[in-house]
Amino acid sequence: MEIIKDISEALLERESFKKQYECLVRYEAKKHARNAEEAEDIAQDAWLRIFSRFSDLEKSVKNLPAWIRVVIRNAAIDHLKRNRVHHSLEEYAAISSEQAGDDTEYVAITKCQFHEILSEIKDLPTLERKIVAGIVSGESETEIAATLGKSRNAIYLCLHRLRKRLSEREP
Q1: Contacts of residue 130, Cβ cutoff 8 Å, sequence gap at least 6
Q2: Contact present, 158 and 127 (Cβ < 8 Å)
Q3: Is the Cα torsion angle 18, 12, 44, 58 positive or negative in sign?
Q4: Number of neighbouring beta carbons within 10 Å of residue 119
Q5: Engineered SS bond to 152: which of 28, 68, 112, 145, CB 3.0-4.6 Å?
Q6: What is the pLDDT of residues 111-135, one digit of tens each?
Q7: Is the pTM of this model over 0.70?
Q8: Cα–Cα distance for residue pair 111/109, rounded to 1 Å
């Protein structure tokens, strides 16, 4: 009987906590979301994270509203990364062609630019070419680093140098 009483008290405590911070969670989730459905997903994920640490919140968290905001921001970042849409260069060319409609001149220019980009990629050193191929195929820098056996910072540095070199070229 005492176990049921303890569980009941714990549930009441969590429900009271949720009512107290529900407006904050919804507001912060909406700030980071693109639409209401996404905001709800972010809020639910944040509540799961909050309640997974609920038993030791009083001991480990000094400023609870600030901590909740950080939890929501991290939940939003994770949600947006999980639901990010990746397109290959071919898909971008197809999308551009669809948007152009019957404008054959625009389609021809887009295809020409696409082939120029491919030839530029072929001229890159092997490591840079592999990194660009990974980016184009939708991989994150972390995934590319793991695939190539390099550190994430090495990938970022290589991309930085590549961008700098390309920006210094004449148009």
Answers
A1: 144, 147, 148
A2: yes
A3: positive
A4: 9
A5: 145
A6: 666 667 777 777 788 888 888 888 8
A7: no
A8: 5
